[in-house]
Amino acid sequence: IKVAASSKATPADIVQPGHVFPLIAQAGGVLVRAGHTEACCDLAQLAGLHPAAVLCEIMKDDGSMARLPDLVEFSKHHGLKIGSIADLIHFRSQNESLIKRVTERVIETRFGLFRLIAYLEKLSGETQLALVRGEITPDKETLVRVHAPLSVLDLLEAGPRAHSWSVPDALERIAAEGKGVMVLLNCAESASQLIERVASPERPEGPSKMDFLTYGIGAQILRDLKVGKMRLMASPRKMPSMAGWELEIAGYVEKAAKARDG
Asked: How many CB atoms lie within 10 A of CB 120?
């Protein structure tokens, strides 16, 4: 473990596969990905130590994995402190941000005027966009669509798509509501990504677990826009650690019965 955790470690230094699996935390920690790997490294770094840690599962007597209610009782029994990823996200988000609002202007669309805001992602240098209609307040429900990744084909296709809500459909719905936010992530489409999308427009049915975990950048943008309670334009899903961002999903808005996630 000491060898793997060293800042100078390379893949050649350890035998793979082994009984201990090396994991690599995503840059930005829980502010980008709400995962246990990122949480462990964040805790070590916040303590002023090298961002490396040992991650293990706690098992119950029957051999099944202990869930949060079990861990709460376990911590009480052994006098241990306990925290959640949501707690860590909340703490870090109160003290730092991985996005910067750089410019904005009002644009005219087919569905009326929207406020277009550009954000710079500090880690990657990529630009993310947000379209806002109406006055947004955290205590009132806001219609929200987070669209990722954004492809130029999303603006062209009118038939079956890889997203449950197309960009025009989402903007039309927000305009009809009179208030809402659309966040456009991963706007920098590479040549290879565009060619792949042209060749195969459909994604595998349903989003992966990674899609659900890696949403921190979008959450930071929504928080900057004063979104609190929101109705998400997507198929229902479990969104981990949303409370850490002070975001609450009040419901989901599906475009069709067989809508696919975007």
From this structure: 15
The one-letter amino acid code at 115 reads R
Q: What SS3 class is residue 245?
A: helix
List, in order, residues 6 or more apart from 192 with CB less than 8 Å away. none
For the chain, which ranges sit under pLDDT 50?
204-210, 212-213, 257-262
User: Are residues 56 and 161 both part of a single domain?
Assistant: no
Q: Kindly provide the b/e burial profile for residues 193-216, where b requires at least 16 CB atoms within 10 angstroms of the residue's own CB.
A: eeeebeeeeebeeebeeeeebbbb
Q: Are strands 99-109 and 142-147 parallel, antiparallel or unpaired?
A: unpaired
Strands (E), 48-138: 99-109, 112-121, 127-133
Domain boundary among 94, 110, 127: 94
Domain enclosing residue 105, as ranges? 98-252
pLDDT given at position 133: 97
What is the pTM assigned to this prediction? 0.73
- CA angle (104 as vertex; 99, 107 as ends), nearest 5: 135
Q: Which tokens go with 151?
A: 């492809």
Nearest Cα neighbor of 260 from 207, 210, 197, 213 is 207
Do both 38 and 123 map to the same domain?
no
Kind of pairing, strands 127-133 and 180-184?
Answer: antiparallel
Domain finish residue from 30, 62, 94: 94
